[in-house]
Write a sequence for this structure.
């Protein structure tokens, strides 16, 4: 899998940055505008998949390796659970208690820095979803290469 | 407004029939993407841009990219003939379900696009809409519901995704390891 033609490579080298930035925007503004962690994570993963389809799997793995993707996946899941646990320990309310907003540490509504734990959860879910989707596509494509190679023998 | 919905419904049904009946795998996948696109436009007209974004990203982009990245190129045709008797049986079943729906639904269900929770007072969704802003401070009420009031559901969804990724990694681990040792396959 060496990648596609030079037209696809040139266009995707411009477009991949814009797709990645759009995913980050969707995640960071998830508590103000439509979107959120899940949709933004899928957009970020699709930018890496575009890299993989245009330049080949080895080039994409140099940017974001398989072990690094797996670690990011676990890190996002752990941090999202940690947000819920912090709500349990601060103020003795309940799991996923919005402790930052209830104690009014920062932020007015309609600002970027508002809504307490919701932007934090969005960021962690975005990391988790993007990493896991790219991981499963990497694994499935390597599985396809393996089966097609064993059929040729 | 209703004309738009019926046009989109006819479009979605035609795309679903083509996706089932066509022989090429790639055109079937593109038709499923068209179904997702029509559904996301419906969500957009129902003032639900969050679900529209998620629908178009997951169903259209995710499905087509996943199929393109995983299915090998030489198996693009679906083998085997379709049975005439099976198609007749499925058409009869679909007709019966449609007749039952036409008989039952106009009395029990509210109109298309109207939320069912507004009929009862003191329901949970009314509390979310009225007090969500001051309780969570988020301008987007959907984010305040899925990440504050109903964050348990989001945690469960994240757990489902995490477990499925672990399963895929473990099942395909040997071949992936072997591939990593000899990268120029």
């Amino acid at each position: 899998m060496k990648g596609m033609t030079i037209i696809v490579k040139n266009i995707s080298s411009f477009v991949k940055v814009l797709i990645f930035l759009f995913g980050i925007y969707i995640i960071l503004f998830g508590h103000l505008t439509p979107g959120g962690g899940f949709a933004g994570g899928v957009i970020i993963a699709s930018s890496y998949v575009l890299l993989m389809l245009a330049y080949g799997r080895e080039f994409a793995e140099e940017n974001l390796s398989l072990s690094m993707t797996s670690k990011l996946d676990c890190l996002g899941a752990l941090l999202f659970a940690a947000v819920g646990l912090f709500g349990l320990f601060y103020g003795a309310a309940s799991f996923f208690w919005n402790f930052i907003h209830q104690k009014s540490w920062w932020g007015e509504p309609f600002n970027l820095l508002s809504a307490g734990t919701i932007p934090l959860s969005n960021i962690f879910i975005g990391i988790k979803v993007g990493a896991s989707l790219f991981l499963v596509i990497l694994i499935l494509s390597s599985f396809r290469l393996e089966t097609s190679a064993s059929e040729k023998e | 407004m209703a004309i738009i919905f019926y046009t989109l419904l006819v479009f979605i049904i035609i795309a679903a029939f083509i996706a089932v009946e066509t022989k090429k795998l790639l055109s079937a996948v593109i038709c499923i993407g068209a179904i997702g696109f029509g559904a996301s436009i419906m969500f957009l007209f129902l003032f639900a841009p969050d679900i529209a974004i998620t629908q178009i990203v997951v169903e259209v982009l995710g499905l087509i990219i996943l199929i393109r990245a995983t299915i090998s190129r030489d198996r693009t045709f679906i083998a085997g003939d379709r049975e005439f008797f099976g198609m007749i049986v499925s058409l009869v079943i679909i007709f019966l379900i449609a007749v039952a729906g036409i008989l039952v639904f106009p009395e029990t269900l509210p109109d298309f696009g109207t939320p069912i929770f507004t009929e009862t007072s003191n329901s949970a969704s009314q509390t979310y809409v009225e007090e969500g802003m001051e309780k969570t401070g988020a301008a987007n009420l959907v984010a305040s519901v899925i990440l504050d009031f109903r964050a348990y559901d989001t945690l469960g969804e994240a757990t489902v995704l995490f477990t499925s990724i672990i399963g895929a990694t473990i099942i395909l681990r040997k071949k992936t390891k072997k591939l990593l040792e000899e990268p120029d396959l």
